[in-house]
Amino acid sequence: MGNIDVNFKLDTGEDTNIISQQIYNQLQPLPAVGKSPVTLRAFDGQRIESIGVFKVPLKYRNKVLETVFKIVPDGNNALLGSYDCEHIGLIKRVDMKDETSNVNDSTGS
Q1: Do residues 36 and 50 lie in contact, with contact meaning Cβ atoms separated by under 8 Å?
Q2: HSE of 86, CA atoms in CB hemisphere, 13 A
Q3: pLDDT category, 39, cuts 50, 70, 90?
Q4: Which residue among 17, 73, 93, 98 is least crowded, i.e. fewest CB within 10 A of its CB?
Q5: How far is CA 94 from the centre of its chain?
């Protein structure tokens, strides 16, 4: 991410990307921060206030993806949401077909 290595937890149940204020402060140069009117909720329902939002290039292997992150208070994990996980090649969606077979009632009733 930018000029630093970040270990992300992959959150395939969410599209929002978040990093802590501490990680944001390590980026050089610091990306411009915009306001984020969104209040986030953790999986347990706990509110997480967003400090701001910014864009940064995210690099993985030979891919670079310009992506948006919300800054949250220190103590929260760095999370990469499903959209960016998929588009940078960390996960692959698999389409599943629901095939049901017709079962004939052979009891004669």
Answers
A1: yes
A2: 11
A3: confident
A4: 98
A5: 18
CA 91 to CA 109: how far, in whole Å? 50
HEC profile for the chain?
Answer: CCCCCCCCEEECCCCCCEEEHHHHHHCCCCCCCECCCCEEECCCCCEEECCEEEEEEEEECCEEEEEEEEEECCCCCCEEEHHHHHHCCCCCCCCCCCCCCCCCCCCCC
What distances in angstroms separate CA 100 from CA 97, 103, 105, 107, one per listed residue?
9, 9, 15, 20
How big is the chain, counted in residues? 109
The string of pLDDT tens digits covering residues 13-25 is 888 999 999 999 9
| CA–centroid distance for 29 within its chain | 23
- Could you tell me if 14 and 82 are in contact, meaning their C-beta atoms sit under 8 angstroms apart? yes
